[in-house]
Amino acid sequence: MSLQQVTLQVNGVAHEISVAPDALLLDVLHDQLGFRDVRYGCGEGVCGTCTVLLDGEAVSSCLVYAVQVEFREITTLAGLLGEDESLHPLQETFLRLGGTQCGFCTPGVILTAYGLAQRMPRPTREEIRYELGGSLCRCTGYTKILDAVESYLENRAFASEEARS
Amino acid sequence: MRDAALAATSGGQILVSEAAPPSIPGPGVAEPPSRSPETREPQGADTPASTVAPMRVVGQPVAHHDFIEKVKGSILYAADWELPGMLYGRVVRATMSSARIVSIHTEKARALRGVATVLTGEDVPSNQLVEPSAGGVGELLVAMPILARDRVRYAGEPIALVAAETQQIADDAAELVQVEYEELPGVFDPGAALLPSAPLVHDDGNVLTSWHIQRGDVQAALAAADVVIEGEYRTQHAEHASLEPEAGVGWIENDVVTLRVSTQIIEHATQIAEILKLPVNKVRVIAAYMGGSFGGKEGMTVEPYLALLVWRTRRPVRMIWSRQESILASTKGHPFIMRYRTGATNEGRIVAQDVDLIGDAGAYPYKSARVMFYAAALSCGPYFTPNVSVRSRAVFTNNVPTSAFRGFGARQVTFGYESQMDRIAETLAMDKADVRRRNFLRKGDVIPTGETLDTAVAVGETLERALARLEEPSAPSGPSKRVGRGFACNMQPYGRTIWFPDSASAWLSIQADGTLLIRSGVADVGGGQAASLCQIASEILGVSLERISVYIGDTALTPPAGGTFATRVLYMSGNAIMQAALKLRGLVAPVAAEALGCPVAEVVFEDGRVKAEGKSASGGAPEEGISLGELVRLCEARSIDPTTLYVFHPDAKRRGFDTETGQGASFPDYSYGTHAAEVEVDLETGEVEVLKYATCHDVGRAINPLRVEGQMQGGAMQGLGYALMEEIILDEGKIASSLLADYLVPTSDDMPDVMADIVESGEGKGPMNARGIGEAVIGNAAPTIANAVTDAIGFRPTQLPITPERVLALLDAADGTSASGSVSSVPGASCQ
Amino acid sequence: MTAMFESGVDKAMPMPSAPGALEDTHARVVLDDWERRWYGEPRFKYELVRSYEEAVFALREHGEGAKALAGGQSLVPLMNLRVLRPSALIDLNGIVAIAPQVEGGRLSLSAMTRYSQVLLSELVRCQTPLLTAAIAYVGNVRVRNRGTIGGALAHGQATSELAAVALALGGEILAYGPTGTRLIDAEEFFVGHLKTDLRPEEVVTGLRLEVAQSRQGSSFTELARRSGAEAIAGVAANVTLSPERDVIGGVRLGLIGVDERPVAGDRTILSSLLGRIPTPTEIDDVAAEVTARTAPVTDSQSTASYRRRLVRVLIRRALTEALQRAEERASAE
């Protein structure tokens, strides 16, 4: 049998499954494991729709084979939710400030912004713009996406200041 | 009283809310409808929009319903659906643009292990689609095969279908289908297609339709005009590039072919039934929430192929078009060739417009006939034009078919008329904004189709506000850079062409616990079509948004709403839900009045309860009233069903339409707006960088300002892509590259923030005086940029997209004089 | 979520009575008994390697159809599009990259270093600022997170920013193959359209670049039609002043988008700049002459004639800025 047994760690849960070596992480996540928030957009790595975090870094799941990422930490958008499905503060600002319209780019955009926020304490709007340059959106025109990310960062900075004082 | 204000705003008529001061549309109202150009006063900033009465939920930037699921990632799009035993489909497409099909061999494909079926044209019960898209008003009726059998007319035309156990096997099998072609001469340019010697795309000729609008005496007016500006403008094929590709899942349930697809129009169930030769009750179409469409899913995309594969295999089938397949073969926005001759007086007043429009319809009609009608009707823009001659033709070629794309013809002509307006100003050495002001339409004016505008025209205010946003001009960042400013005003219809009887239904019910259930056949493209219905119902019945559920887009279960296109959903379905809610309120209010012991007029719906307003018979605090759930029980006791179905028919005068003169009914109403930009051009590389971008549109009333701004910013960005970087390059009908990497849509790193200002004139035919906005927001971008580039470098781009190569070509062609006459030498000054 | 495929088999399709019972020439179907799914034959054999030796061995073993997989940002799209169909993928991602280091006046980058690591490296920013500047133009954040130095070099795209830097900084590509390690000059490495000097069973193991000198300045510039899109043309320039006098002592250019492969700016022409501080006109003349020696192509993104005009401007700007920076650094001493 040419299938391989792999363990994929997705949103903190280990999944032991059989995959073919030529199965893209995108297809395994979406079709086989049912993570519907990881979707096909272009298959070229250009649009950012299929973005997942791999050990905290944004990657195109359409350009990685599932067999390549055994035991790595994979995070999808649903992985940001709290215990009781409560919104992560970044999801909350996207909702409140209109950063999502059709929603198809949203998982990739939010995960990429989240990855940036984990890496840098307070990126500027220009730095956010640059980091999101690979996440195509056809609906929002990006302004409210940037507003949402900045708002999240501002609240986070405020909260950590408060925590310190 | 707020409630009285609501009751007064019934869709289809323009009523001003009692609670708000009457709108002051401008000096034009008191004057007779037809005025000679000389007596028009410029319409400036002294035409304030009415202040609209504040509401509890409507007018608030709330985020709710599907948007919550979208940020959580839990929403299910068309391809996020899975059924046991599901097969995977693939369309096999022609590789030639014009050919006879000699043979199709599917044996090898069928023999591949895991292939469930391979279908060709002979397997399609009724292998044709005829779209009388202009309502039978003079266009050629052309049959389009579902699967081409004898003839291929464009590269990418579907020839066969495969369904297999895995996508990979389906794709392998698709490659094994062998098609033998005999190449035929093709025609790839609409101008060439008009020549008598041109190869015929269809037997009856290459002109799908030709629209004419004649008003006044254009030739005489042009002859007498002080200046005549001639211009030719070209736009390109535009790809919608929705992030969600065309997709869907089909299955058979209770002997009904059921499709759950990304589609703007579930009513295609009728066509699907025809194709399968099934009765319509044996086909069901469900519209999943869509990941964008912009007109690309207005025609059927995966539906007929899914239906065929499902019907044949009796198994569930999923089909997702690859991005490259979508770029190659999905319908595109029309490239236009526009020729304008504009006559004006020395004072800058337009006296005549002579316009010739040619749209490349591609190989099949789709919506081309209608697009060219929109183009014709809107070709003069938001300006009073006493003498008009328009010819607008849709011409077949062996290129990829063109159809609906946000803006729908009115988008392209904005580039034409706004370039002309700037040129008039340049020629007369007049301020560009002033020229607009002198010509803006007003309520009560007659437009080229002979209709009289019956709502406020606040375009002047949008102009002032957009320009104000640009603030101080930026200095060039280097010696080889030039900064320029430009703007463009536009006019876009909302609501369907009124020759077609249109209607939209909404069903509304108060549940036993006071929660609301809405059913409406709308398709949600991502712009809050479904959510807006909830917001309106919430306002009228006083129920919070979390306690309202909406079910959309299902031919089996929701009352028909007519499809999401022509910016009609807020207008039609918004009015439907509003009327349904008012009617429901009217139905249950007497029961409440009796229970509360007050007159019906004092019953108030608030916070999920019904109260007697200001009841202070005993001088105490107002009572808490009763909960909606209690009210439902009381209604049931009286055999009153707390449920309504409302079918909204717009109150539009349905006159005829004279195809010779183009006079008659066209659209119910329009939205107006202005975009303004500052750009920097690199004279050595031709690069255009957008430094500032402002948008302002009149939406009558903003049901949800957050979403309205989102439409403006998104539409501007899509327009900027079309203005500067998006291009489908075809060579003999074959696309140069179908990679998304090569179809460049703007990223966050390419453009500045888009400023968005909303004007609320208080007059619109949608619910609560709202106007549709979805398409109004894209057409301004290209002429805004073209005008700004012209301001920067003194030469005018007349072809889209405005690439660095084309900018350099303009600079090269310079021999000291600009193409458009006088040139303002101070960047920005001409925009004040 | 548990597997939701209850019966992936339609009654109409016969089930094999035993694995391998059905023979056919096209696809061997595997029916996983536990999950009852259908699988076509995998398109390729997959092997994860943990060293370059293993990689070379595996490439040899799997023969001509085998391809090395590094970041996958160039290779996998081509496979998704069915344009490239390797029979085997040798996954190099089991090889641990060594952090960038400087030795003997050269910056050493391991082939499996990701673009993102380069971008974040303070060492790289100080020692080869030209590289940091250029990598910022590469693709998007996802491409940079996975794409590798070795993979980019091996792919040999005509518009590779990394290649331009390698050419401008005297790059040496380290390759390992059945015959051992080889050092290939960047100027010898890019030989044709997506063609490098690598032999079939060789893999890139590293890149060495000259580190910035005190009297040196560099500049990278490119024009793309949109952020993250492939460059229409680009220039990496490195200018060194003579040790004693403030005149140009050395100048190198790496050019992309000007040919079917990345190329170095013509040395003979550039040598006319040595021994002096050129005027703007002189720089432009040199830019024009260097451009005239290139052979840009027309493709779906741009024309040869536009590229020719563009690259002249970019060379002039890059040289001017590199010279300016060299002068600033020299005067800061």
Q: What's the total helix number of chain A?
A: 5
Helix content of chain A: 25-40%
Structural class computed from helices and strand pairing of chain C: alpha+beta
Question: Would you list the SSEs of chain C in sequence order as H and E?
Answer: EEEHEHEEEHHHHHHEEHEEEEEEEHHH
Question: How would you spell out the order of helices and strands of chain A?
Answer: EEHEEEHHHH
Q: What is the percentage of strand-forming residues of chain A?
A: 15-25%
* Termini gap of chain C: 64 Å
Q: Provide a count of the helices of chain C.
A: 12
- The low-confidence runs of chain C, each spanning 5 or more residues with pLDDT under 50, are 1-34
Helix content of chain C: 25-40%
Mean pLDDT of chain C: 89
Name of the CATH first level of the largest domain in chain C:
Alpha Beta
Average residue pLDDT of chain A: 96
- Cα separation of the termini of chain A: 61 Å
At CATH level 2, the architecture of the largest domain in chain C is: 2-Layer Sandwich
The CATH superfamily of the largest domain in chain C is known as CO dehydrogenase flavoprotein, C-terminal domain
* Total domains of chain A: 2
In CATH, what is the class of the largest domain in chain A?
Mainly Alpha
What would you note in describing this structure?
The complex is a heterotrimer of chains A (165), B (832) and C (333). With 165 residues, chain A is of the alpha+beta class. Chain A folds into 2 domains: 4-79, Ubiquitin-like (UB roll) (Roll); 82-164, Orthogonal Bundle (DNA polymerase, domain 1). Chain A is 36% helix and 15% strand. Chain A has 5 helices and 5 strands; from the N terminus they run E-E-H-E-E-E-H-H-H-H. Chain A has helices at residues 25-32, 89-96, 106-119, 125-131, 143-164; strands at residues 4-10, 13-19, 51-54, 57-60, 73-75. In chain A, strands 2-1-5-3-4 form a 5-stranded mixed β-sheet, with helices on one face. In chain A, strand 1 (4-10) and strand 2 (13-19) form a beta hairpin. The mean pLDDT of chain A is 96. Chain B is of the alpha+beta class and 832 residues long. In chain B, 25% of the residues lie in helices and 24% in strands. Chain B has 19 helices and 32 strands. In chain B, strand 16, helix 10 and strand 17 form a beta-alpha-beta unit. Chain B starts with a helix and ends in a 19-residue tail after the last helix. Chain C has helices at residues 52-62, 75-80, 115-120, 122-127, 129-135, 141-146, 149-155, 161-168, 186-189, 267-270, 280-292, 304-332, and strands at residues 30-31, 38-39, 45-48, 66-69, 88-91, 101-103, 106-110, 172-177, 180-185, 190-192, 195-196, 203-210, 216-224, 231-241, 248-256, 263-264. The longest helix of chain C is centred in the last third of the chain and has 29 residues, at 304-332. In chain C, helix 5 runs antiparallel to helix 8 and helix 11 crosses helix 12 (304-332). Chain C has a 5-stranded antiparallel β-sheet with strand order 6-7-12-8-9. Chains B and C meet through helix 4 and helix 19 of B and strand 2 and helix 12 of C.
